Structure of Zonular occludens toxin (Zot):
Amino acid sequence: MGFLIFLGVLLLLWLSVIFRIVCLHPVSTIVYAIKDFYLWIRHKGYNFYEAGLLNCYCAHFGGGKTLSIVHYVTIIFKKYNNKMVWDRGRKRFVRQKIHVISNVDFKSIPYEPLASLSQVVCCAYKNKDIDLKNNTRTVVIVVLDEASAQLNSRNFKTNIDASFLNTLITSRHYHISFMYSSQKFKLTDALMRSVTQKCINCEKIWRFLIQNEYDADEVEYASNPTLIKPRKRTGFLIKDKDYNAYDTLAVVDKLKKSVDDGDMMSEQEILQMRGEINPDNDQITHRTRRLKKLLK
């Protein structure tokens, strides 16, 4: 029995960097674990929403990409809005506010309609002063449905400038999470793809919604997305309240209006915006068995 335990420890030392660090600093690890847990309870860390997400949800029409975003945002709003959280900078408890900016017509939660990406930049620069004045911590969740089509509108495209990109890159600092959907990841703007963290592929089977999470950089370089192994697989059961949480046709109506108003970019501008790059499967670290065989 002792020999098996010894082999198990050796295996952990070989496979886990964290285990090796714990073995080097056992006392400090225990002390900090107790300290951090105590502060987490005392400062109500369970109420704190850590912003800074920048994810793309992909699926064909009816595949559940918008449903996935609405489900996530609704849960976050109801769980974290108006909760008291500890502000490290101000050294006191403040009230956390979840501010949703969306081009999806939410029925389940209050939101600000997204008409321009400049709204995101405006929030980044103004919310800090507002929070200091009102003793709050405002978290902004931006939802851009059908981004591959919406960004073809000149009204949206002209807002992807240095200020907007800087806001996305430093979104955690500004307490901003950005979620957008597209039929395919590579159909969206190249600048948006370059700062995206996760590409979440959605598949809807009856009332089951399956989500496969991929590293966005690996999807960017892959010649075929099926060659990538998902980093995480999740899902949920779709309930009636999920279907009733938003208006599925609102975004389509807005896109039709943009087309009728002549606000869409030309085909050449759209193709240039996508910024296609040459596939490089060597950049993929989470490889399927099929890709491993191809690279041998």
Q: What stands out?
A: The CA atoms of residues 58 and 201 lie 5 Å apart. Residues 255-275 have pLDDT under 50 and may be disordered. The first strand starts at residue 54 and ends at 58.
